[in-house]
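ok trying this again, last paste got cut off
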Amino acid sequence: MHNQAIKILEKQRQDLVVRVLKKHEEMEASRSFTERILAGISELFLLMDQDFKVIQTNREFLQRTGFSLDASQRLNLDDLVQPDRAAAIRRAFAKGEFTEFEAHLATITGQRLPVKMRGSTHVNPNGLVLHMLICSDCSEFYDLMTQMQEGQKLLSFSSRLASLGEMAAGVGHELTQPLNAILLFARNCLKTLETPGDHTDMLRENLSIIIDRVNKASSIIATMRSFGRKVEEEQAPVELNAIIRKILSFLESQLHLSEIALDLRLTDQPCEVLGVEVRLEQVLLNLVQNAILAMGRVDTPRLTVTSRILDCLNLTTMQKEPYVLTTVTDNGEGIPEELKKKIFDPFFTTREVGIGMGLGLSIVDRIVRGFSGYIEVESTPGHGSCFSVYFPQYIRDGSPDLLRNKTA
């Protein structure tokens, strides 16, 4: 009886050992399987406990950040992202509404890795809470966006230089006039000095005209330099009416050579907008030049430029806000209906081959949208076109317009 009991206990012991070994093998197989899955994930994987301490990662995370899972000093969420992001992630997990987050993941070198995070919470059968984060590395995307922005800046700069080239004839004529006047009145001064008598008044008058013509030429050159310089991207309040007058003054000779009548109607209200002066100059310069070209075959060409303030719906805030509206209208050839949807497409042009790259209106549209504005086109073939540009009005604190908007 005693021997039989011993045999039963021995059998149970052996069965227990076998079950333990099998369970261990299953756990090892499961761990190995999990590790193989994580190793195959190209994104950065993080598994955290309920206190947001990291308990498991994949190889990609360790390689990209340089961290190691040291048992003596475990990472937590605050070590990996900035405090405001960490707090937002905790709140999202607590609510169970984890939407995609953009954050910068810390690395061991102190650099920040731009990522997009997706998260979920799991509770195992033993009640252990586990938070999982999957991070997509956005470094290449942001690098590509930076390169695209640099490319757009270069295209914009090239477009401005091309516009200067197109104005070469008008600018040459504009500079010739003051130079001829300077030469003429300088010769008059020399002849006067050689003539006996007191000619102080005549000399003073001639020298005053010379100074005026020098200032005129200097103004033209300064304007050309402003168009040709590289653009600083910092936005500031810009008076749009002043830019309109500057552009029209610069194109005065071109309008005169083309026998174009100018109808200028600018509001007396402040027309400040938030933008970059050179880019706004480029917008108006391009629109006016296009209008001049469109009237090349018109017997009595007429250019109308206006500005005014009106309330428009801001699609971002869904509220009516004051906008500066600038219109450039011509009585030229007009744009066929089938082409109106294409005129803002890059490289689309109605000009002859070899004249222009078709980037002007595309760049104009991008600049306007970049300053939170928009552009509309109305055109009738044979009767001309009207380009309307809307920019949010920049209102300084304490101005009458601001008080009007607050009480409206």
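PB: full thing came through this time. Residues 2-40 form the longest helix (39 residues).
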